[in-house]
Amino acid sequence: MKTLRRFFGASDRGQAMVEFALTIPILLLILLGIADFARAWNVYEVLTDAGREATRLSVVDNGSTEQDVREVVKEAAYYAGITVTDSDIGIVEGATRGEPTTVTVTYDYQLQWVGWLLAPFMDSTTITFNVVSTMRRE
């Protein structure tokens, strides 16, 4: 009795190519997803550090204005390739020594590579970062 393998031929030459063609889209999607979310995490960390730095400027330097605080955030964001406007930065300054000062930075990050894939399952492919930094005025 002949087996199907012997009947159709004993060659396996195309098997690896077919398996590769089936798995490469999944692997590329995973790789692009990792890169996209890593960039989002980087943006979040930049905004967190910028908010913390701006809050520190506000509580330590009594001569700083709200515009100085906003410029610290915008400059740090600029060097990371992010555009932050004045309306994205909220500042609540403590009036006297010992009161808290809070700087809030809000930024909408658009997923670039996996956004088109997640769009049918989500209302939006935008991640909103809301970073809050609070320190006591010195």
Task: Give the key terms.
3-stranded antiparallel beta sheet; single chain; 138 residues; 4 helices; alpha+beta
Termini gap: 92 Å
- Helical amount: 40-55%
Strand content: 15-25%
Looking across the biggest beta sheet, what order are the strands in? 1-2-3
The main pleated sheet reads as: 3 strands, antiparallel
What is the number of helices?
4
Mean pLDDT figure: 86
Q: Classify the secondary structure makeup into a structural class.
A: alpha+beta
Radius of gyration: 26 Å
Task: Give the low-confidence spans.
Answer: none
Description:
- This protein has 138 residues and is α+β, with helices and mostly antiparallel strands.
- It contains 4 helices and 3 strands; from the N terminus they run αααββαβ.
- The longest helix is centred in the first third of the chain and has 46 residues, at 15-60.
- It is rod-shaped and about 90 Å long.
Quick structural summary:
The protein is α+β, with helices and mostly antiparallel strands and 138 residues long. The chain has 4 helices and 3 strands.
Question: SSE layout and pairings?
Answer:
Elements: H1 4-8, H2 15-60, H3 66-79, E1 89-92, E2 100-110, H4 115-118, E3 126-136
